[in-house]
Specification:
Strand order of the largest sheet: 4-3-2-5-18
Low-confidence stretches: 1-21, 584-611
Shape: globular
Helix content: 25-40%
Length: about 600
């Protein structure tokens, strides 16, 4: 028999740290996806509901399911026990299951508005801005110089990692909201920026950062030097590539990995990635790095290029110098310092610098006098507004190169800011609604604590490049994804961090039975007089000096929610509390399940407060 006592109340800010354990993975996601929720639904076989929950807050959910950097996995508590849940791969399974099911996506009811908004750029940030504004009734037109939407995802990420069908899924849903896309149109050439200012009530610039940063070493002008962004653009648009036998890629990000693997698929025999820092400082995830190495790419760490060697005007090799790590730089990472006399040469016919990218500002009118900071349009960090009235900017265009999910999160927040601007609102009051359900019985799925992380099926190495035709190899997928059995097994590993143990001090008799039964040793009973309080803790202050006083200490990070302590307690002094958080704004929009943002909302200059 399940005995529950549901209660609903508002929690004061002083309790934020107490509830923070509930939202770590969700806070790590820039778009606020409730990964815990859709994993729990998937574990029960409720795949369509899981898909809806994963899709709802994420304007680029299909693309994310293939190539998201998955910051949520780094925050996943399961990683403290063995390995974090494969959250991105689970989202891919739900997306593919939904697409194969034929179940139509239900569009929201939209109340049309008269205001018109132009979005410059159809990448992840642009799609996010367009979707959020269209859902709120605005007439949105998206302009892009490419023949199709997707931005960096279309021309920067190879098809063997991100199928074009995934991009189409996300774009199709945005189009169904009434968004108009205008392709093959370059602002400043086909349409002037001044014309946009005249025709639209607001403009969002989401043009990305697709200009390569030049390699500042002798020989950078030689024939055979191809910058990473240009190299991947040619590959994705089906244009011919010359890679030769030996390729050297300079950099340590996703673009460097993609360029190296693309070179192999276009016929290169030897590909090396050279990075100036250590392996642990690479910005790519271990799975991406692992697949790159398995395909035969050689990794060279702690080395910087000092010269590109040429012969008859063409690249013949690259001279590098070894580094050691020095003092931390502005980002907090230890700076690479060259080691004198450690030069070495790697032969190459093609060199692909993939160190960084910058935004192209050429289409902005000089007379508008945009404020520029370090080659980027300067915007108010709280409102995303530029100094030009009605013009907003977000995504890689203002931050520099980031990840897919970060750009989409930037776009969502920018859309909310544009909505407030066009609606004439200076702030949005957000109420933190916390629902807490207490239960004396809580059952986890069978074997959840011993199930290992399910291996994500991959295409065998021999089958990844099955043809002599580069186009075939480039479009042959590498990751296969979970089947239903694998998806259920993986999602069953979720520790359900929204459940937390709660001790009732008026019922507890300090028998220690909970500490004895805990399989992870996370509960400890200690003498109250051994504890020290740095802040105001009335419960401890009242207990100090009591010879028989005791305290129950719980290590929340190691708790696996098995509830054995709840079942073992002879006096029902322990319950499992299920926390559900949501933010509801005065305009009825559900922004994000995040208590921390709720505290900041309305604060001038912070989290969408007035400027």
């Amino acid at each position: 028999m399940v005995i529950e006592q549901p209660q609903e109340f508002l929690v004061q800010p002083v309790d934020a740290s107490w509830l923070q354990c509930n939202i770590e993975c969700q806070e790590a996601c820039p778009v606020g996806t409730n990964c815990r929720g859709y994993l729990n639904l998937a574990a029960e076989g409720r795949f369509e509901e899981g898909y809806i929950l994963s899709r709802d807050p994420n304007p680029v959910a299909a693309m994310c399911s293939y190539v998201c950097s998955a910051p949520c996995e780094r925050a996943c508590r399961r990683g403290d026990i063995d390995r974090p849940l494969a959250i991105r791969a689970m989202k891919r399974f739900l997306v593919e299951w939904h697409e194969a099911s034929g179940i139509p996506d239900v569009m929201p009811e939209i109340t049309p508005r008269d205001e018109r908004v132009a979005v410059v750029g159809a990448g992840p940030a642009g799609l996010a801005v367009a979707r959020e504004l269209a859902t709120n009734g605005y007439q949105v037109t998206v302009y892009d110089s490419l023949p199709y939407a997707g931005g960096t995802m279309l021309i920067g990420v190879p098809a063997f990692r991100l199928p074009r069908e995934a991009i189409e899924m996300d774009v199709r849903l945005v189009e169904r909201l009434g968004v108009r896309f205008v392709y093959d149109t370059t602002i400043g050439t086909d349409i002037t920026f001044d014309q946009l200012l005249q025709d639209f009530d607001g403009i969002a610039i989401t043009a990305g950062a697709m200009d390569a940063v030049a390699l500042d070493v002798p020989g950078a002008e030689l024939d055979g030097v191809q910058y990473g962004v240009d190299f991947m653009k040619k590959a994705n648009l089906g244009q011919p590539l010359e890679v030769g036998t030996d390729v050297v890629v300079i950099g340590g990000g996703y673009t460097a990995m993609d360029c190296s693997r693309t070179s192999l698929r276009h016929g290169a025999d030897h590909v090396s990635i050279v990075y100036r820092r250590t392996r642990s400082e690479l910005v790519v995830d271990e799975e991406e790095l692992g697949e790159t190495e398995r395909e035969g790419v050689r990794m060279e760490f702690l080395a910087s290029p000092i010269e590109i060697i040429g012969k008859d005007g063409k690249v013949a090799g690259v001279k590098f110098i070894r580094n050691r790590l020095g003092e931390p730089d502005a980002s907090g990472r230890r700076s690479p310092v060259p080691i004198e006399g450690s030069e070495f040469v790697i032969p190459a016919q093609v060199v692909i610098p993939a160190v960084s990218q910058a935004a192209d500002l050429a289409f902005l009118p000089v007379e508008a006098r945009f404020e520029i900071n370090r080659g980027r349009v300067k915007v108010d960090p709280a409102t995303y507004a530029s100094n030009v009235k009605g013009v907003f900017a977000c995504g890689d265009f203002v931050t520099g190169p980031t990840t897919l999910i970060e750009a989409a999160g930037h776009g969502k927040k920018c859309a909310y800011a544009i909505d407030r601007y066009l609606s004439g609102r200076t702030d949005v009051t957000v109420a933190a609604n916390v629902k807490i359900t207490s239960s004396w019985r809580h059952d986890m799925p069978e074997f959840y604590d011993v199930l290992p992380r399910q291996h994500i099926p991959m295409v065998p190495l021999a089958a990844r490049m099955p043809s002599t035709e580069p186009v075939v190899n480039f479009n042959t997928p590498v990751e296969l994804g979970y089947d239903a059995n694998g998806a259920v097994a993986e999602s069953t590993r979720c520790l359900m961090c929204n459940f937390n143990i709660w001790f009732d001090p008026f019922r507890c008799v300090l028998c220690g039975a909970c500490a004895d039964v805990c399989p992870e040793g996370v509960i400890h009973m200690v003498d109250i007089n051994t504890l020290k309080s740095e802040g105001l803790l009335p419960e401890l202050e009242e207990a100090y000096g009591w010879d028989n006083g005791g305290a129950m200490i719980l290590d929340e990070e190691r708790c696996i929610r098995c509830a054995l302590c709840v079942k073992r307690c002879p006096f029902d002094a322990i319950t499992m509390e299920r926390f559900e958080l949501q933010e509801i704004s005065t305009d009825g929009r559900l922004y994000k399940e995040s208590y921390r943002d709720a505290q900041l909302a309305g604060t001038p200059g912070v989290a969408g407060g007035p400027r």
